[in-house]
Design goal:
- By secondary structure, the chain is mostly helical.
- Helices cover 64% and strands 4% of the residues.
- The chain has 21 helices and five strands.
- It has a three-stranded antiparallel beta sheet. Strands 3-4 form a two-stranded antiparallel sheet.
- Helix 1 packs parallel to helix 3.
- The N and C termini lie far apart (89 Å).
Length: 530
């Protein structure tokens, strides 16, 4: 192994140890020692110093991380990744001005290094973006995000100091704002430089990556161009021990079996019960069918449960060639068999209540934007419904142009990002809670199997299988929701900017807000009618 390969192997060992220490809450000292030994063996290596700083910061020692990161940045002045780690360490220690300075310096570098040189956190090289341009675009976006956070935090801290210094009377006066003052501010406080800056950021990102959408990790704020890489990153870095336990989740029935069960349950019921017992037998069978359908709807009907239902029936009625090899065989049970099976299935109650529905509605406009060479084109997305008066696309476009913007483009970008981070952090926290519950249930099942080897499946194992599958369904739902809320869409910058420009052009180039222009046009219309 050459020198470069040897240090990379050592770096991988440190990063693996760091993951273990963060997941299990132990081994911190050993991990720090491994990282320190890297610098001891390669004192002038920017990579070794970067790894040491990264490990210290990740283990809660942001202040101690600064020195190796500063030294690393001095050696590799063109590295955007080192600048990103250093800026995060500055921010973690409350030195937001230095975080901003670090980011702005890195973003001003004319020919930065390829981020692949220091992508030690991503062990698998296939997770890197294929082109240098895309890797640089992602690295720059991460720096812009950290810079924006640091600037925002500085402003918030200063505002908090001012607020705390006010008397009650001063606060009441401050919170009283006249309509005239508010209008004057919004009409005279336009910030075209900020709007152009955000527009340039969006255009550069789209041109470099060919993508409108990326995904922002709410925990470490890394940017990903593909949803599957984002999911892989979250599972490997921020969801503890999930993959290790997924193999113990019972297998769900196939789609083909699901279709059969649904068709069987709604079909006409037939039983081999004698007429005097028919009413009671049909009542029990109906209850069993309802339970099976409920399990199927909750996605907690396992292959094991179905097999055990078929096995029970065969034991009761005998291994006859005419016995179906599917759930419909339970219709062959007599009243006694149905009563026994029904009592065993009663042990599965109550069924879990799963929170897998996302009540949040998609509120985005039905308008999209396309980049063709160096021009943007607005069009109507046929996959999104148009809630507007009018029967044509032209009516819908005019309605969109004339509708007042809720926020200016710069604020819209900032709010979009903060919303992404806040919602993503909440979903990730819920996801880790569900994963922890899932792991506990799986451990309980393993213990149950070891201590109750010959116990009937329906007495305890079936119930815990349902609980495990319910938690697994909730985990899957939360993973889908995490991808959704962490989506970072640059069209949210481009579309408002285009809307301002197009409306100004439509109104003879007057740079007024859509809301103000619409009221002017409304007054002209009323005057012409009168």
């Amino acid at each position: 192994m050459d020198g470069g390969g040897y240090i990379r192997a050592r770096v991988k060992a440190v990063i693996d140890a760091l993951r273990t220490a963060r997941e299990r809450g132990e081994g911190k000292a050993e991990t720090l020692s491994l990282a320190a030994n890297l610098v001891k063996d390669w004192p002038q290596s920017a990579l070794a110093l970067h790894v040491l700083g990264h490990v210290r910061a990740a283990l809660g020692e942001a202040k101690e991380a600064l020195n190796p990161l500063i030294e690393s940045a001095k050696i590799a002045r063109g590295s955007l990744d080192i600048a990103f780690t250093l800026a995060r360490a500055y921010a973690a220690t409350g030195q937001f001005d230095l975080a901003v300075e670090t980011c702005e310096f890195a973003l001003s570098i004319d020919n930065p290094d390829d981020p692949a040189m220091h992508a030690f956190v991503i062990v698998d090289s296939c997770q890197l973006e294929p082109s240098k341009e895309a890797r640089l675009a992602v690295a720059k976006q991460q720096l812009r995000d950290i810079c924006a956070d640091a600037k925002s935090t500085n402003v918030i801290q200063m505002a908090r100091q001012r607020w705390n210094g006010m008397s009650e009377e001063e606060r009441r006066s401050f919170l009283t704002v006249s309509i005239k003052e508010m209008r004057a501010y919004h009409q005279g406080n336009a910030k075209p430089s900020e709007q152009l800056r955000d527009l340039d950021v969006a255009v550069d990102f789209i041109k470099a990556t060919g993508e409108w959408i990326c995904w922002l990790c709410p925990r470490c704020q890394k940017v990903f161009l593909r949803a599957n890489l984002f999911e892989l990153h979250v599972e490997n870095e921020h969801i503890h021990e999930l993959q290790e336990w997924l193999s113990s989740v019972p297998k769900r029935i196939s789609d083909k079996q699901t279709d059969f069960i649904e068709s069987w349950i709604i079909s006409r019921m037939t039983t081999n019960v004698i007429p005097t017992e028919e009413a009671e037998g049909e009542k029990i069978l109906s209850r069993i069918k309802t339970l099976v359908l409920d399990l199927n709807d909750l996605k907690v009907l396992s292959v094991d449960l179905v097999n055990n239902l078929v096995k029970f029936t065969k034991v009761w009625v005998g291994e006859e060639p005419t016995v179906p090899q599917n759930l419909s065989c339970i219709t062959l049970l007599d009243r006694g068999g149905l009563q026994v099976l029904g009592s065993r299935l009663d042990l599965l109650q109550p069924l879990p209540i799963l929170s897998t529905d996302d009540d949040e509605q998609d509120s985005r406009d039905p308008f999209d934007v396309e980049l063709v060479k160096d021009a943007f084109t607005v069009y109507i997305d046929e996959n999104v419904s148009i809630n507007t008066v009018g029967s044509s696309d032209q009516d819908a476009l005019f309605s969109w142009l004339s509708r007042p913007l809720r926020e200016d483009p710069a604020t819209s970008w900032s709010s979009m990002r903060q919303d992404c981070l806040a919602k993503g952090a909440d979903v990730l926290e819920m996801l880790n809670e569900k994963v922890a519950s899932l792991i506990e249930k799986v451990k309980h099942k393993r213990l149950l199997i070891e201590t109750h080897v010959n116990e009937d499946y329906f007495y305890a194992k079936a119930k815990i299988d349902i609980e495990i599958m319910g938690l697994d369904a909730e985990v899957d739902s939360l993973k889908i929701k995490l991808v959704k809320v962490c989506t970072y869409d640059y069209r949210a910058i481009i579309l408002p900017a285009m809307k301002y420009y197009l409306w100004a052009e439509l109104c003879n180039g007057r740079q007024e807000s859509p809301g103000h222009q619409r009221s002017q046009a409304h007054r002209v219309l009323i005057q012409s009618k009168s």
